[in-house]
Specification:
Helices cover 32% and strands 24% of the residues. By secondary structure, it is α+β, with helices and mostly antiparallel strands. The strands form five sheets. It has a five-stranded antiparallel sheet with strand order 8-7-9-16-17, covered by helices on one side. Strands 1, 2, 4 and 5 form a four-stranded antiparallel sheet that branches. A three-stranded antiparallel sheet has the order 3-14-11, with no helix packed on it. It is built from seven helices and 17 strands. It folds into two domains: 5-202 and 274-297, Creatine Amidinohydrolase, CATH 3.90.230.10; 209-270, Arc Repressor Mutant, subunit A (Orthogonal Bundle). It has helices at 5-24, 31-44, 106-125, 129-142, 222-235, 246-249, 253-263; strands at residues 48-49, 54-57, 60-62, 79-88, 91-100, 146-147, 152-156, 166-168, 183-186, 189-191, 199-201, 210-213, 267-270, 273-275, 281-283, 286-291, 294-297. Bound molecules: manganese (II) ion (MN) (2 copies). Residues 94, 154, 185, 187, 285 line the site of one manganese (II) ion (MN).
Length: 299
């Protein structure tokens, strides 16, 4: 089966956006400005964000998308990860780049990029995900770096960012094998050699910024039902961030409604993930598809 053309359209925008990001993101923009600009540019090019744009500074590794009022600025010494996605009809292209104005992270960044290339080269011939992880880990180790062991790449399905299979960033035996027509993202995360090498949840107080609807049912509470209807209409099961809905539901009221939907197990929150020893992390990511015997890079 050929790639649905929606995957190709999403992939083209994600690919073109990489250059746009590297040209347009600069010190001292705020994380909020960057996320809003990335998502506006995706829309300008005719796509929709597949998930809230993640801005990870230094040890902030994944699942952080800035909210209204966030005044955090990127600085000249920061290692900045921008993880973004585009979808058409739920067909997702997921990709990430790391950028910095500091010379001190150049080797870490270049090695992470090479780890992704090494992983892709393995995936072209060997669909065993454990072997892909091994290539990522070996590339990191050869330069004295470590991979983040508890984050991984993943298969993608329509309206599902993390489908069934994981693609580890370390060697792991007995991992699933990628099959023909699987669409998947490979995303090495590398950190310093003396770092812990895994991520932990940031404290809940620091805020959960990414959510998704996991169950759609009536609660009988009008404001909750209105929010569920709105999420379903604009996102289905794709992730969202409160920043997108504050106009309709109110900056003060929305977190309370989301907390109630989480309590009712209808919405899931994804805590911000931070490197456990607070070490800087670099990330590069591509989405690709095994089409017959060839690997097609979509992003
Ligand atoms: Mn991503
Ligand atoms: Mn991903």
């Amino acid at each position: 089966m050929r790639v649905p053309e929606q995957y190709e359209r999403a992939g083209k925008i994600a690919r073109d956006m990489r250059e746009w990001i590297l040209e347009n993101v600069s010190v001292p923009q705020t994380c909020l400005e960057i996320a809003n600009a990335v998502e506006a540019e995706i829309a300008r090019r005719g796509g929709q964000p597949a998930f809230p744009t993640g801005i990870g500074i230094n040890a902030v590794t994944a699942h952080y998308s800035p909210q209204e009022g966030d005044q955090t600025r990127i600085g000249g010494d920061d290692l900045v990860k921008i993880d973004y996605g585009v979808h058409f009809d739920g067909y997702i292209a997921d990709t990430a780049v790391t950028t910095t104005e500091s010379p001190r992270y150049q080797v870490l960044m270049e090695t992470t990029k090479r780890a992704l290339e090494a992983a892709i080269n393995v995936a072209k011939k060997d669909p065993r995900t454990g072997e892909i992880g091994k290539a990522i880990e070996a590339t990191a180790r050869a330069e004295g770096f470590k991979t983040i062991s508890n984050l991984s790449g993943h298969t993608l399905e329509q309206y599902t960012v993390h489908a069934g299979k994981s693609i580890p960033n370390v060697y792991a035996p007995n991992q699933p094998t990628l099959k023909r027509d699987d669409v998947f993202a490979i995303e090495p995360f590398l950190t310093l050699g003396d770092a812990a090498g895994y991520v932990v949840d940031a404290p809940r107080e620091s805020g959960v910024t990414i959510f998704s609807l996991i169950m759609r049912k009536r609660t009988g509470v009008k404001e909750l039902d209105d929010l569920v209807d709105h999420i379903w209409n604009v996102r289905k099961s794709l992730p969202f961030t409160p920043r997108w809905f504050t106009k309709q539901f109110g900056l003060e009221r929305l977190p309370k409604l989301l907390a109630e939907l989480e309590r009712r197990r209808m919405v899931r929150g994804y805590p911000t993930l931070v490197e456990a020893s607070n070490a800087p992390v670099a990330q590069f990511e591509h989405t690709m598809k095994l089409e017959g015997n060839s690997l097609v890079i979509l992003t």
